[in-house]
Design goal:
Elements: H1 11-15, H2 17-22, H3 40-59, H4 61-66, H5 81-99, H6 108-127, H7 158-169, H8 171-188, H9 194-205, H10 230-266, H11 279-291, H12 297-321, H13 328-337, H14 346-360, E1 376-380, E2 392-395, E3 405-409, H15 422-429, H16 434-442, H17 449-452, H18 457-467, H19 480-505, H20 510-520, H21 525-537, H22 544-563, H23 569-576, H24 584-603
Parallel strand pairs: 1-3
Antiparallel strand pairs: 2-3
Length: about 600
C-alpha cells in the first residue's frame, strides 16, 4: 500500500488525504523541473505546471514534508472553510487557464501531460460538491496520528529541532480548524460511522496524558544526536517540553473533549456512505476516481464475486497438495491458530522481513531492464498507530533523494502476523511493488513533477498487486504455504471488491462484511477487522487494487499473444512503468503502442 496501502499508501499520504483530495497534484519545488523549451504553448504549459505545483505545496506543508521540500517545515496547512473555498476557486481558474493553451501545438509527451493535468483537476472539481474534507478522520489516519510526521524528518541539526518546536507551538490552530470541520460534518450529517470512531477515542485519549516525555510529539527530543552541543541539546529539550506541555497536550485535551462529547454522539449508526447526504452519488464518484474507470459499483461487485470463485479453486489445489484433511474453513482456522506459522517476538519478525527483502533485490534484473537508484529500508510501524493499522505500508522517498523509501512492517502482536504472508507482502510494499514503481517515477527527470509524483490509485496499487504474481520468477513461494499466502493476498483484494461495494452500495453491515471476509481469506481476525473498518471509513479506495491488477494482467496477456516468442517481459515491465502512474485507459494505449511498434520493427526486413 502506498500506505496503501499503501498497503497501500504510504501511511502519511493517507493521513494528508484531506488536502490531497482538494489538491491531487502536489509538488516538490526543490527538485528542479526540466526547463520548458519550444513554442509559446509549451512554455505556457510548463509555467502553469510550475505555478500550480508551487501553490499546492504552499497549501499543503505536510505533504511538502513528505516529499522532502524543506521550505514549510514550521507550518501546518490552512484547512479553514475559507481556505478550502479559495482553493476550489483556484482549481477552477487553473483548469480554465489550461484550456486556453493550444494543445495541438504541443509535443506528444506534453499533450499527455496536458491531458493528465486536466483529468486530475477535473477530479478535484467533480469530488468537491460531496465535501470529502468532512470525512477525513479515520481509524488509521487523522489528527490522532499527526505525531508520525516526525518519521519523515531528519532531526540532524539544531534547525530541524527548531522547526519542529515551531510546528508544535502552532498545532493548536490546526487542531481548532480540524474541529471546526467536524462541527460542519455534525451539522450536515456527513460523519463517519460510530463503530469506527469509537476506536479513535482511545487514540486521542493517549495524547492527553500529563507525562510530557511520554508524549509521541516529544519523542524526537529523546534522540538528539551527539553532534549537537550539549548546551543546545538542553535548550531544545526544554523548549520541546514547554511546547508539548503548554500547547500540544492542552490542544488535544480540548479536541478529545469535543470528540467525546459532541462528535462521537453525532456519528451515524449505519456503516455505508450511502446513508449520508448525496452518499450514493458520492460513492459512484469515488469508485470512478480510485479505479480510473467508469465501472459502476454493481459491475465491480460482480467482478469481485467471479475473482473470489476463481482464486478459491486455486486455493483448494494447494490444500490438496499439502495433504490437509478437513474443510476449507478448518484449513483457514489451522493457519490462523497453529504456532508454527508465527514468530514469538517482534525482533524475530522484523529480522525475517529484512531477510526476505534482501533476497529479492538481486533477482530483479531478471524481470526489469531499468531499476531505481534510490534505496529503500525496512522499519517498524510506530506503536502510536500499530494496533489499529494494517500489516505493512510503504513510505516513499523524498523527491530530491535526501531520504530513502521505507517499507514499514507491523510488529504489534507477532502472534497474529503469519509467516506465510511475509513474502507476498514484501513484494507488494517494497520491490518490485511500491518502492520500485514510485522511485522509478520520481527519477524520471524528463517528466513534469506532478507526473513523477502522481498517485493514480488503480495504477499504483494495481501495479503492486500485479507484482505479487511474480514471486516464483523471483525465487519465492517455494513453500506451498507461502504460495497459499500469495493466493490469500489475491483473495483479500478480490474480497475487497465484494465487501467495499457491499457496504457502500448494497447496505451490508460491518458484521456481514467481516463474516464474508473470514469465510474466504486466511487473514487473521485482527487483520480482517482492521481491514473492514478501513473500507468503511475510506469508501472506494480498496477497489483500486484488483481493478488495476486485472487490467495490467490483461495487457500482459494481450502483448504475449500479439508478440509470441518476441515478447520480452523486461521490456513489457519497463514500458508499463515508463510514464509514471497513469489512468488505466492511458496505460492501455501506451502498451498497445509498444506492441504495434514491436510488431512493425520485427516486420521490417534487415538491410
Amino acid at each position: 500500500m502506498l500506505v496503501t496501502a499503501v498497503e497501500t499508501r504510504i501511511s502519511l499520504r493517507v493521513l494528508f488525504s484531506l488536502l490531497l483530495l482538494l489538491a491531487l497534484f502536489t509538488t516538490q519545488v526543490t527538485a528542479q523541473q526540466p526547463a520548458a523549451s519550444g513554442n509559446a504553448a509549451t512554455r505556457e504549459l510548463h509555467a502553469l505546471f510550475d505555478e500550480a505545483w508551487d501553490q499546492d505545496m504552499r497549501n499543503n506543508p505536510l505533504y511538502a514534508t513528505y516529499l522532502g521540500d524543506r521550505r514549510f517545515e514550521r507550518l501546518w496547512p490552512d484547512i479553514s472553510m475559507a481556505a478550502i473555498e479559495k482553493r476550489h476557486a483556484t482549481d477552477e481558474a487553473t483548469l480554465a487557464r489550461l484550456r486556453r493553451i493550444d494543445r495541438a501545438a504541443l509535443s506528444a509527451q506534453d499533450q499527455l501531460s496536458y491531458d493528465l493535468f486536466a483529468r486530475e483537476y477535473q477530479s478535484r472539481l467533480d469530488l468537491y460538491p460531496y465535501k470529502p474534507y468532512l470525512y477525513e478522520l479515520r481509524l488509521r489516519d487523522g489528527i490522532q496520528t499527526l505525531s508520525e510526521l516526525a518519521e519523515l524528518l531528519p532531526f540532524a541539526t539544531v534547525t530541524d529541532y527548531e522547526n519542529w518546536i515551531e510546528r508544535l507551538k502552532t498545532i493548536d490552530r490546526y487542531i481548532d480548524q480540524y474541529q471546526a470541520l467536524l462541527q460542519v460534518a455534525i451539522r450536515e450529517k456527513r460523519t463517519q460511522p460510530r463503530v469506527i470512531m469509537e476506536r479513535v477515542a482511545p487514540q486521542l485519549a493517549a495524547l492527553t496524558g500529563k507525562d510530557v516525555e511520554a508524549n509521541p510529539f516529544y519523542a524526537p527530543f529523546t534522540r538528539i544526536p551527539d553532534s549537537i552541543p550539549a548546551n543546545e541539546r538542553s535548550r531544545l529539550q526544554a523548549e520541546g517540553r514547554a511546547a508539548v506541555a503548554n500547547v500540544v497536550i492542552p490542544a488535544y485535551t480540548r479536541f478529545e473533549k469535543f470528540f467525546r462529547e459532541r462528535y462521537l454522539p453525532a456519528t451515524r449508526k449505519t456503516d455505508g456512505i450511502w446513508d449520508t447526504p448525496q452518499g450514493v452519488e458520492f460513492y459512484r464518484e469515488l469508485a470512478a476516481f480510485h479505479t480510473t474507470t467508469r465501472l459502476t459499483p454493481e459491475e465491480i461487485h460482480d467482478i469481485g464475486l467471479k475473482e473470489v470463485a476463481r482464486i478459491r479453486a486455486e486455493m483448494d489445489r494447494i490444500i490438496a497438495q499439502v495433504g490437509f484433511k478437513g474443510t476449507f474453513a478448518e484449513f483457514l482456522e489451522y493457519l490462523r491458530t497453529d504456532p508454527k506459522f508465527y514468530y514469538d517476538s517482534p525482533d524475530e519478525l522484523f529480522r525475517a522481513y529484512v531477510v526476505i527483502a534482501k533476497q529479492i533485490d538481486p533477482e530483479l534484473v531478471k524481470l526489469f531492464g531499468k531499476l531505481p537508484r534510490t534505496p529503500y529500508g525496512v522499519r517498524p510501524i510506530p506503536m502510536t498507530s500499530a494496533p489499529n493499522t494494517t500489516t505493512a505500508y510503504y513510505q516513499g522517498p523524498a523527491a530530491d533523494g535526501s531520504r530513502a523509501g521505507y517499507y514499514y512492517v507491523n510488529l504489534y502482536r507477532p502472534e497474529v502476523r503469519p509467516k506465510y504472508e511475509m513474502e507476498v507482502l514484501t513484494l507488494h510494499e517494497a520491490v518490485p511493488g511500491h518502492h520500485l514503481q514510485i522511485a522509478l517515477a520520481q527519477e524520471q527527470t524528463d517528466l513534469p513533477q506532478f507526473r513523477r509524483n502522481a498517485e493514480a490509485t488503480a495504477f499504483v496499487e494495481g501495479w503492486a498487486l500485479y507484482t505479487e504474481s511474480l514471486g516464483e520468477q523471483l525465487g519465492l513461494y517455494k513453500d506451498p504455504y507461502a504460495k497459499f499466502g500469495q493466493l490469500t493476498y489475491d483473495m483479500w483484494r478480490a474480497v475487497r471488491l465484494v465487501v467495499d461495494t457491499g457496504i457502500h452500495a448494497k447496505h451490508w453491515t460491518r458484521q456481514q462484511a467481516i463474516d464474508y471476509f473470514k469465510a474466504n481469506a486466511a487473514k487473521t481476525e485482527a487483520d480482517i477487522i482492521n481491514e473492514v473498518d478501513r473500507y468503511i471509513s475510506w469508501p472506494g479506495q480498496a477497489l483500486a487494487y484488483k481493478i488495476g491488477q486485472l487490467r495490467i494482467l490483461a495487457l500482459r496477456e494481450e502483448a504475449q499473444k500479439a508478440l509470441g516468442s518476441r515478447f520480452d517481459i523486461r521490456a513489457f515491465h519497463d514500458v508499463v512503468l515508463s510514464n509514471g502512474a497513469v489512468p488505466m485507459d492511458v496505460l492501455e494505449q501506451q502498451v498497445r503502442n509498444w506492441i504495434a511498434q514491436a510488431q512493425n520493427s520485427s516486420a521490417r526486413p534487415e538491410s
